[in-house]
Amino acid sequence: MKIISLGMGVQSTALYYMSSMGEIDRADYAIFADTGAEKSATIEYYHKLDKWQKQNNGIPIIRIVKKNILNDLLNKQNSSGTRIASLPAFSKTGMLRRQCTSEYKIYQIDKQIKEIYGLTKYARYPKTEIWFGITLDEASRMAIPQQGWKINVYPFIGYKIHRDCKQEHMGIENPVRRSELINWYDNNNIEQPVKSACYFCPFQSDKSWIDTKNNYPDDWDNAIKVDNAIRDSSKRGIRDKIYVHRSAIPLKDVKFDESQTDFWGECSGNCHI
What whole-number distance in Å separates Cα of residue 243 and Cα of residue 200? Predict the structure, then answer.
């Protein structure tokens, strides 16, 4: 099967539209792993995309809503209920290990693929293509799959990557940049989605924080709750206080820099796409 990893950002959503519209090969499914803390604007766009899918015979979209990172963080546990989820949050001395994407995105998508195949508990997965919307300007985000059954596919760049590091060129002569996808949305009169991420994601720009604070008060309030909830992580062996903003001060007290516009960093190959 061919599965689009649908992060609901500009690139993966464009990949979904193009595949549905026949501009590239048609995938079998698109899977959106909803962490339970997606931006309100992202969820609003998802509902529009779901409507578009029904009206235009688009690729079936599966939205996974089985886990909720917001509740887990506020309850100081992870997706399995055993310990606090690990965000790439900040202390005065450094940054925490990143685990949220693997727990709430990648693992959930893998479980959903298993359900689609109807596999029993210990059955082996068939070879499966996982499509990512990574563009040429972000080629460094391409990755080797961690499981042998996966083939990571990057249609905008033109490569398939196997677990043994084997690379297949897909014959694409002109790899696509993110700016070209922006033009594609405009040329097709399709609304462009916002950059996707949890609303408390530490990997975001001050401009994004400002937008959340000014335009999405519920998201902002929940981000502050998470920031406060993770402050004391001594039970995890972390002595320093931790924060979601890289200034390492409470989010409610941050004086944001409006000129700081770029997202930076990411947890794995999925976030923001």
Answer: 10
Tokens 């516009």 belong to 261
Phi, psi of 6 (to 5 degrees): -95, 100
Per-residue pLDDT reduced to its tens digit, 28-70: 999 999 999 999 999 999 999 999 999 999 999 999 998 899 9
Q: Where are the domains of the chain?
A: 2-88+98-199
Whether the model pTM is above 0.85: yes
Q: What is the pLDDT of residues 214-262, one digit of tens each?
A: 999 999 999 999 999 988 865 555 678 999 999 999 999 999 998 876 6
The per-residue pLDDT for 234 is 54
Helix axes 40-56, 10-20, angle to 10 degrees: 0
Nearest to 69 by CA among 37, 43, 101: 37
Q: Give me 169's structure tokens.
A: 């060129």
Q: 214 vs 47, 83, 125, CA distance in Å? A: 23, 33, 45
Amino acid at the residue 163 = R
Block residue for tokens 């499981």:
147
Residue 153 sits at the vertex; the CA angle it makes with 184 and 267, to the nearest 5 degrees, is 85
CB 136 within 8 A of CB 119: no
CA separation for the pair 150, 108 (Å, rounded): 15
pLDDT > 60? residue 176:
yes
Q: Where are the beta strands (DSSP E) in the chain?
A: 2-5, 29-33, 61-64, 128-131, 150-154, 159-161, 167-169
Query: pLDDT at residue 131 above 90?
Result: yes
Q: Which CATH class is domain 2-88+98-199?
A: alpha beta
